[in-house]
Amino acid sequence: MPSVDFYHVPGSAPCRAVRMVAKAVGVDLNLKVVNLMAGEQLKPEFLKMNPMHTVPTIDDNGFYLWESHAIIGYLVDQYAKDDSLYPKEAKKRGLVNQRLFFNIGTLYARFADYYYPVVFAGASYDPEKLKKLEEAYEFLNKFLEDNEWVAGNSITIADYSLMASVSTAEVIGFDIKKYAKVADWFERAKKAIPSYEETNHAGALEFKKLFESMTAKK
């Protein structure tokens, strides 16, 4: 089994997406927790790998890569036995990519825009930002109207990435049951993703602990 050094934070949704995909394609991640609060990401050895000093970051025998969507595509292309999780056919891959970009640019971005100022800066909840987040979930619900999975009729890395985001929102109280197709997909994905509890849910609970401790200080 190939082994890749993986610099991560357990509670991070993007980091958990990488863990889930790595497990699915048979890559052993050598887990290295980065203490962001202590500034470990700013050490010279980390900056040499990733000048943007972000997690997740991988070191695959001297090949450095960061940004979770880039990493999960790389892991499938480099190590998977087939391309089912990230199809090479142009139209199928185009749809998967669109959903990945939807996650980073819309759904996860709006989640962060709504919750992170509250968690990390002590701000009040902004109802306008909540409306934008709810709109993102309406889009996701629409994507799932005619398909079992977010990019068609088979599970792909787009499901893994969105699953990490949705599970994070769900665990801190965002009501995904208002979006019936999303709620159904969420239950399907939990069963379909290998070692979901170990690679994702445990980390989501870590984020929940952080969320509750930070918001309790208000």
Automatic annotation (TrEMBL):
It comes from the Eukaryota. Residues 89-211 form the GST C-terminal domain. It holds the Pfam family GST_N_3. Keywords: Transferase. GO terms for molecular function: glutathione transferase activity. The keyword Transferase applies. GO terms for biological process: glutathione metabolic process. Homodimer. This is Glutathione S-transferase delta.
